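LOG
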Amino acid sequence: MQPQIALIPNEILRRTTRAVLAFAALSVLLAPALSGGPAHAQSVAKPGPQAAPQAVPGFWDPRRRPDRPDLSRLTVIRFLTETDYPPFNFTGPDGNPAGFNVDLARQLCEEIKVTCTIQMRRFETLLDAIASNRGDAIIASLAVTPELRARVDFTDPYYRAPARFVSRRDAVMAEIRPEYLEGKKVGVIAGSAHEAYLKAMFTDAELHSYPNDEALRSALRRGEVDFIFGDGISLAFWVNGTDSADCCAFSGGPFVESRYFGEGIGIAVRKGNDLLRQALNWALFRVWEKGRYTDLWLRYFSVSPF
């Protein structure tokens, strides 16, 4: 019998990193970003001898270059973002908006060659603000869902929240397939999309469900399970932060099946604003094509979720 798919609600998907962004982890990961210097993904990852190499995600097909829209009709773009969701958006030391989303918005503005503003608001007010014309685009790690598509239009995804396996450092596997985990103890959050995915795809693994991230990660540190499976973004911060005590590392690569883990993260614009949506899609492709997206990703994610 096929298990019921427990898709991650938008609010949970969007906030997967919140619980693990302790100050120590932030100081490690954000120091290069705040100083303006690039970080190298493998320099702090400390993978085991069989670990898969760190990778920068790319969601654009070079064979599908978007056409350049008529940008002359764009005079200003008013970006909206959230106030407190590091490292994606937060208030910088100078009091101005900062973070991965903010820097990406600035690069898009530079590519389009248009004046932009970036205003920080509480997350729950963003959709109403764009509906009432107090902003033009939301760049706040907003997960694309059918419910939100009824209210706003989205650009192509500019990142996803992949699922990842984590093991202890002395048991890292370069690749993970269902047959490799036969009889292995795998921890997962009860009721999550990650649990549903394991039940559907890793039927020979021995699943152990936990109520929250802290219990899940403690089980791996204590050796109660061989692997844990969960959100790759929050796990990347945990693996590289002080809470993990350098115990663990990613095993295998990312899992991004949209049926379980969502369509990705996009920039939202008002319904019907095709000019702005197309302009942002064109600019996202150009920023990626020039390598600037890669530089930005490595600046904020010294251990890549991918």
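LOG (cont.) second protein
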Amino acid sequence: MNIGDVAARSGLPAKTIRYYEDIGLVKPLRSANGYRTFRESDVHKLAFLGRARALGFSIEDCRGLIKLYEDTERESAEVKKIAEDHLTRIDAKIAELTEMRATLATLVHACAGDHRPDCPILADLASKQQNLKVKQTG
């Protein structure tokens, strides 16, 4: 199969497939003229990577997951550890985003949004910038 066929079947753009090849996640065969020749197993691996990336796994996580996917002697505990670590990172990001949203919602609510120049949003952003400068120079 050529890269266009694999892209259509795996749901990944050809550019992504070439990138995954460059970083060693997939290793298609090469014909005598240098063209990539993909096997059915490459299509499955690329679809697997696409799904893992859609779930937010990092490239390094994907590298570990692919290695475990190909290892028939794997222990599911290793797979679970990678997934649990990723879930912990997602939970931390959700908490961070929730805090950001609450702060921004408070600021938006406090801003009159009228013709007057005073704005709590800009004041807050400026005060946070001042705090950063003090921390960096202090």
